[in-house]
Design brief:
Length: about 270
Amino acid sequence: MGVINVTPDSFSDGSQLQLRGSSLFQVDIDKALAKAECMVREGAAFIDVGGESTRPGADLVSLQEELDRVIPLVEAIRENLDVCISIDTSSPQVMSEAIKAGAELINDIRALSHPQAIAVVKQSNVAVCLMHMQGKPSSMQESISYENVVEEVFTFLSDRVQFCRQQGIDKQRLIVDPGFGFGKTVAHNYQLLKNLSRFSALHLPVLVGLSRKSMIGAVIDRPVEQRLAGSIAATSYALLGGARIIRTHDVAATIDAIRVNSAFSRV
């Protein structure tokens, strides 16, 4: 899953997609589409489009601003590329418009907690990724507390899966994500990574987002743009733990890691 953040304050590379000459942040669709095309050539099966930064302390984005950022890009990708489009949002309105524009997967860091989100999903046939987060993006790293992070995250995801099933969402449409970096300390993140196989008990595909995150930077002491090797190392452990979808900013290198893991697993 290749990541395209169309935000000015993404922790990684979103600002690179700003329309040149604009004083306010506007997405350069041609640049963003070219990036998506490159990711597909490198082997991405999904392109994940997000218009709201969810890094710790990120600013809130208005509904209209989020729509303006993501919908034109979803439309452009759908018109030009043969790839599954994921929309990274918690807003029911953005979900609905993105589905109309061609999105086939809802990637929701809030696990459909918005009251209207489940209704949008029920009216469609899209897949949904349910992610765990303790707290909210603006303050999630300020007060972190778990007695057993693996079991608490597992229980949360199990409960959200059950909720979706009770609402009539077919299990085949569901994906789970333990939410690396979302309301977890560095130690919590590595406990989850070490015990990722625990989530296979949910009998659903597990998506992980480890790429360039602070859990990598904290142990290798490198800035965001120098975290590729560390991200690939973490990805390799995630694959061994049963991850089935890897969300990444660096598709080519991640595909190489996946291919080596596949060869290793077949022996």
